[in-house]
UniProtKB/TrEMBL annotation:
Signal peptide bounds: 1-18
Protein's UniProt name: DUF4203 domain-containing protein
Organism: Fistulifera solaris (Oleaginous diatom)
Keyword annotations of the record: Membrane, Signal, Transmembrane, Transmembrane helix
InterPro entries: DUF1275
Transmembrane spans: 78-97, 123-146, 158-177, 189-212, 240-259, 271-289
């Protein structure tokens, strides 16, 4: 139990650090609004022409500061989204491995299993793995269709991605308790949803969130750069992702073990697909809109500063 407690505390600390540090580095301009001389330090952030424009009228001050706050809040949410997605990858990885004995959010293992099953003549297992791979590819193609359609609307792309993948997740729960034929659609449906999510993170965020191999590579390169050049600028994103990912894997593994041994019959686990749908929809809704209360509070503070 002591080992479990230490592991849980370490994982929670890593998660808090992953979410807090990106926000600290990206809220420099926003924190200036808490000071009475908030307008003057903006000279260090904006060029001379913009500063002169700010000093012209209070309306222009409000416009520039509002844009600065909005851009800063968006950058802060993006920096926090990466470790959150890493945490969700760890969650789905543990649950899918425990329940289906495969990783449905990355296709490397499914490719190995499909090839091995073909060589051994296990056609049923090979067909399932090939179906998972094709479903994942179809999900990535579906993201491109969603992205193209959303370009002509005002509906946020991240939320459209979350709703589309959540539909596949919920359908997987619908088929999970059905006949043996329909139950074989559970893994392909989950892979389809993960394909949409992975295509979004790769295309929009520029970060692969479905696997950790590339991030470990960047960590190694960053260590070499720190030794040779004295600085490490390229591994910060990977560090944040891995902290969320590894911490989530540890926490979920411990909780799953307790749930299946000591807490059996006491706690009924919720459906996997619905749980993933709720989590991803909530996260992407926050990423799209932020917290309305905080946005209103910032506007009120801004108006008081300009009076």
């Amino acid at each position: 139990m002591k080992l479990y407690a230490i592991t849980i505390l370490s994982a929670l600390f890593a998660l808090i650090e992953s979410f807090a540090l990106p926000r600290i580095h990206s809220t420099r301009a926003t924190n200036l609004l808490h000071r009475h001389d908030a307008i003057l330090p903006l000279n260090n952030l904006l060029d001379e022409s913009v500063v002169n424009t700010i000093n012209t009228t209070s309306e222009k001050q409000q416009s520039v500061l509002s844009a600065l706050i909005d851009n800063n809040d968006s950058a802060s949410r993006t920096a926090s989204l990466i470790p959150i997605l890493g945490m969700l990858t760890g969650l789905t990885g543990v649950l899918c491995y425990r329940r289906f004995n495969c990783f449905l959010h990355m296709m490397t293992g499914c490719t190995f299993r499909a090839a091995t099953s073909l060589v051994e003549g296990s056609w049923s297992a090979a067909a399932l793995d090939v179906g998972i791979i094709l479903s994942f590819i179809t999900g990535t193609a579906c993201f491109r269709l969603i992205e193209t359609k959303q370009a002509s609307t005002t509906f946020p792309l991240p939320l459209a991605v979350a709703l589309s993948s959540s539909t596949a997740f919920c359908l997987s729960d619908l088929f999970y308790c059905q006949s043996s034929v329909l139950s074989r659609l559970v893994c392909p449906l989950l892979a389809f949803g993960f394909g949409i999510l992975n295509a979004f993170s790769t295309t929009v965020l520029g970060v692969v969130t479905s696997a950790a191999t590339g991030h470990y590579t960047k960590i190694g390169l960053g260590c070499a750069e720190a030794i040779l050049l004295g600085e490490n600028k390229n591994a910060q994103t990977s560090q944040a992702y891995l902290k969320g990912f590894v911490s989530s894997v540890l926490l979920v593994s411990i909780l799953y073990r307790q749930l299946t041994t000591r807490w059996t019959g006491l706690i009924v686990p919720p459906p996997l697909g619905v749980t993933l749908a709720l989590i991803y929809t909530t996260v992407f809704a926050w990423y799209s809109y932020g917290f309305p209360f905080l946005n209103i509070r910032w506007k009120e503070m801004l108006n008081k500063k300009l009076r």
